[in-house]
Amino acid sequence: MITAIRSFAFMLAFYVGSLLFVLAAMASNLVAPHSIPAVATGWSRFHRWCVNWLLGQKVRVEGELPQGPYLYILKHESMFETIDLLCLLHRPAIAAKRELFDIPLWGGIARRYGLIPIERSAGASALRALRSAALATTAQGRPVCLFPEGTRVPHGESPPLRSGFAGIYALLKLPVVPIAIDSGHVSPRGKFLKRAGTITYKVGEIVPPGLDRNEAEARVHAAINALNPPVR
Predict the structure, then answer these.
(1) What residues have CB less than 8 Å from 85, skipping those under 6 apart?
(2) Contact between 148 and 73 (Cβ < 8 Å)
(3) Which strands, in side-by-side order, build the sheet including 144-146?
(4) For 163-170, which contacts have Cβ atoms below 8 Å and span 24 or more sequence positions?
(5) Of 160-164, 175-179, 182-186, 223-227, which gets the smallest average pLDDT?
(6) Nearest Cα to Cα of residue 63 among 175, 169, 204
């Protein structure tokens, strides 16, 4: 019962609050576009507050989290990390599926913030466009973030990385910071009920650019799945 009440309170507060932030971003886009990143970061902090105080979920980071023009590769288990990244890192450019940029109003705000559209097919032209956008981002000292599994996966599962990761890794030639996250054990994908507990980010060893594809993929895959329960 308590979990249900917490989950309902979170849904009500977060989505009503999000509407206000969207309206603020729309107004900023008209009169002061440079302030959109601040509005987006404020939204992420509001989300973190709702997670902490309404759901009873605490957030901790294990390991040193470098800031700057790195390629961050993250496990993807729930909606939590897609929003919380704006709290975790300084103005990250998150690679998101292109369809999201076609959403009226939101798409324009996302582009203004500096999110990077990515085609699911990850063909050669899509990779070149992604490389151009990512290099422009890192030239500003901002990090680029990618969820290489392509979609949210249940906690404990470790599907192979999408083929696009290898192409992006080779094209960008950036050091990779792999990050495991276990958000799915308290906020399962597609579930209304969200449990109290601790969400952990575990920062893995930096993967240098220029490695053989198989080695780079193996290192990243192991690192982002480091918080999975042990196999019995």
Answers:
(1) 44, 74, 92, 94, 145
(2) yes
(3) 57-62, 197-203, 176-181, 71-74, 144-146, 93-97, 116-118
(4) 163/122, 164/118, 164/122, 164/127, 165/73, 165/217, 165/220, 166/213, 166/216, 166/217, 167/122, 167/127, 168/71, 168/127, 168/130, 168/131, 168/134, 169/71, 169/209, 169/213, 169/216, 170/213
(5) 160-164
(6) 204
Q: Is 194 helix (H, G, I), strand (E, B) or coil?
A: coil
Cβ neighbours of 209 (radius 10 Å): 13
Confidence class for position 86, pLDDT limits 50, 70, 90: very high
Distance (Å, rounded) from C-alpha 158 to C-alpha 175? 22
Q: Which helix (H) or strand (E) holds 78?
A: none
pLDDT per residue as tens digits for the range 9-34: 999 999 999 999 989 998 988 888 88
Whether 204 shows a pLDDT value over 70: the answer reads yes
In degrees and rounded to multiples of 5, residue 150 shows phi and psi of 85, -20
| Joined tokens for residue 101 | 């940029």
Comparing CA positions, the residue from 230, 76, 68 lying closest to residue 159 is 76
**How far is CA 180 from each of CA 11, 75, 108, 134, 153, rounded to the nearest angstrom?**
25, 5, 30, 22, 13
| Other residues' Cβ atoms within 10 Å of the Cβ of residue 97 | 14
Long-range CB pairs of 24-28 (<8 Å, 24+ gap) are 25/109, 26/105, 26/109
Q: What is the pLDDT of residue 176?
A: 96
Region of residue 155 (left: phi > 0; alpha: psi -120 to 50; beta: else): beta
